[in-house]
Structures are given as C-alpha cells and as structure tokens.
Amino acid sequence: MADDRRSSRGSSRPRGRTGPGRRMPPGPARGVRPPQGGRPDRPAPRRPRLTGRAAVLVLVLAVLAVSYASSMRAFLHQRAEIVELKAQIAERKAAIDDLEREKKRWQDPAFVQSQARERGWVMPGETPFVVLRDGEPLTTGATLTDPDDVAPQTPEAWWVDAWESVELAGHPPRDEPPPMTEIDGTESEE
Description:
With 190 residues, this protein is mostly helical. The chain is 45% helix and 0% strand. It has helices at 2-9, 52-106, 109-118, 158-170.
C-alpha cells in the first residue's frame, strides 16, 4: 500500500517531461511535420523567402522610416535654430551688460573729466595749448622764432583766388602723364 500511495500522489518529477538520462518516446517530434506527399526520402518543397505578407511589412517599414526621417530632419533643424537663437540672446545680453556698465561709468565725475580731457576740452580757468606744426614733436635743440621776426603776409582779395581757379580750369597743368588710352570714337576695341 505504501507503494500505491506514493504513485497516486505523484512522484517528485512531473510526468511527460524528459530529463537527463530519459529518452523521448518514439514517433515524430513535436512541431516537426512529416514530409508531404508520403515520401520520407524526398525533401519538402521550399517556400519562397519573400511572401506577400513580408512584402507588405517591408513596405510599411519603409514608409515609417521615410516619415520618421523627415520628422527627424525637421527636429534637428529646429534644434540647430534654437541653439543659434540662444547664442544670439547670450550675445545681446552681454552687450546690454556692457552698455549698463558704461552708463554707470559715466555717472562718475572723474571718468567724465578724463573723457573730456581726451577729447580736447579744458576746465574753466585752464589755458589750452595747441600745436600748430605738422604734429611732429619739437626736439630738445630746436628753437622757436619770435612772431615779430616773421614777415607779415598781406591778405589778398577773394576775387584773386577765384580768378586763379578759372584760369587753372582753362589751362590745367600737364605734369601728369596722359592716360593710357583716350576715347575719341575712331578706334573700336574688339
């Protein structure tokens, strides 16, 4: 009876499964179909690799790839545009900060005075000096002449200068070489 109890309750291994050391029952394996036509020595005819379902699936995947590619291109273009706009915003914020700092500097009287001196302005009561030469600094051995020793120039009337310009327009000086080609209308260039 003890053997009957053990067998009725079941063994520790499930029935119908093969484990190591057990053999599969004879007969066709699960999922394997015998060849059609009743001839076991002849292989089954091959099915075509690309079926109608597979072609439709490939077509759907191609359409999805094209639609996602155009969407991805638009997405990447917009990202690049956003990055460019953020860079412009950062530049403009930096320019605004620079202008605000400059505005605060102009509130300082010492800065205003230094800028006025750089631009040639003088404070009330100061005597400005202007160099009238060619802008070359005087050397240490140079001497200045007395203004009284310079011969005074007599001013000329305005019409003398005007008449000289009329004469010069009628007879220009020929010191410069003539142009390489003159346009007289007789010679045609090809």
